[in-house]
Amino acid sequence: MRIYSANSIHEEIKLHWRDLEDKCTNSERFDGQARWPSRSAKIKLAFRTMTRVVLLICAAALLPCLASAKRAAPAKVEPVIYQGVRYVAPNDDGRRAYIEAWDIQTNKKLWELTIFANRIDPKLEEDVQWVFINKLGIRGNVLIVTSERGATYQIDLKTKAITESDPAQSQALGEIVQLHDIPEPIQRAITNGSLAKNYDLFFRMNPFYLRGDFNGDGKIDVAVLVKQSSTGKLGIAIVHGGSDKITMLGAGTAIGNGGDDFAWMDTWQVYSKSAAAQQPDKTHAPHVRGDALLVGKNEAASALIYWNGKRYVWHQQGD
Question: From CA 214, how far away is CA 217, in angstroms rounded?
Answer without folding.
Answer: 8
